[in-house]
Amino acid sequence: MNKNILARNILIFEQIKNILKEFKKEKIPVILLKGSALISTVYDDISLRPMEDIDILVKRDDLKKATACMLGTGYHLQTTGEYAFAKTGCSCAVDIHTDILPGLDVWKTAIELDIDGIKTFTLSAQDHIIYIIYHSMIHHGTIKNIWLEDVKRLITYYGISEDKSSHYGSATIYGRYGINWTDFVEKVKQFNLKIPVYLFIMNYSRVFVLDSRLFASLKPSNFIENVYLNFFEAIIKKKEIRDTGHLIKFVVSTHKFKFLIDFIFPEKEFLERRYGMNYILARLLRPFSLILKTLVVFIISLKHLSAD
């Protein structure tokens, strides 16, 4: 038992319960993400899994109400551009999301969760695995042991779908809610995550056992996919490459033009939160800043690719 993690997590869960109570008053449904949801389900000891922050998902239509609720209970919005809140005397920051992956509807398959009598939700097993891998490979561009352990515990806790067919992906499910690997693979391919997920589970298989048929269903099958694989391997190996998140998101984006427009020209509220300056000035400076940063990351990535 890690007493430091235990003490911190106890405080964090008190913070989570207070937030859930306030959101319940305002009739705002919440899906807990990552550490807070995993500790409540797949970890059998609160001291086994450290948390850096609290991640919660709300519906886009509830975002303004959720923001008002946070501000009304003493939190302040941090100047990161995202909906990240902090409060004096609280253990950690709170990040509010409206999606885990653009276009993926997770509310239909969300699982009800009870936190000391407070009803909330967590992601389905397959959506949670996709989210952890997306967070690891796309958002951070690295693989950490803690995320491998999260996936292992999700698979162990929820049980693996039985597959008696000749190909991988039978819809037969058992366990608490089961892991529908057919649904998992279909979503991975639909959202262009085949290669980063393949690379993640290849690293997973070096530590934990996973059915080899899943590898076969995601293995690169053409020249472009092998180029993507080399790109992701270079990113993962060279941890000194910084600011890769948006470049990787562009690579896996299924609507690249829309991604570029939204990325370069975000909403006025985002610019004001992110840069803390005049909206027009921020609008003018952002494209040049992003282009320069992306070029630097791209050049460094190419350098490492050629070196490998």
Element layout with pairings:
Layout: H1 3-25, E1 31-33, H2 34-41, E2 54-57, H3 63-72, E3 76-77, E4 84-86, E5 94-97, E6 111-115, E7 118-122, H4 125-140, H5 145-158, H6 181-190, H7 194-205, H8 212-218, H9 223-237, H10 245-252, H11 256-264, H12 268-275, H13 279-307
Parallel strand pairs: 1-7, 2-5
Antiparallel strand pairs: 1-2, 3-4, 4-5, 6-7
Helix pairs in contact: 4-5, 4-10, 9-13
Quick overview:
Helix content is 55%, strand content 8%.
Provide a descriptive summary of the structure in words.
- The protein is of the alpha/beta class and 308 residues long.
- It folds into 3 domains: 3-123, Beta Polymerase, domain 2 (2-Layer Sandwich), CATH 3.30.460.40; 128-219, no CATH class; 241-307, no CATH class.
- Helix content is 55%, strand content 8%.
- The chain has 13 helices and 7 strands.
- A 7-stranded mixed sheet has the order 3-4-5-2-1-7-6.
- Helix 4 packs antiparallel against helix 5 (145-158) and helix 4 (125-140) packs across helix 10.
- The longest helix is centred in the C-terminal third of the chain and has 29 residues, at 279-307.
- It is globular and about 55 Å long.
- Residues 161-176 have low confidence and may be disordered.
State the distance separating the first and last CA atoms: 41 Å
According to CATH, the fold-level topology of the largest domain is Beta Polymerase, domain 2
Report on the biggest sheet.
7 strands, mixed
Rg over CA atoms, rounded to whole Å, is 20 Å
Structural classification: alpha/beta
Number of domains: 3
CATH C-level class of the largest domain = Alpha Beta
Helix content: 40-55%
**SS elements, strand count:** 7
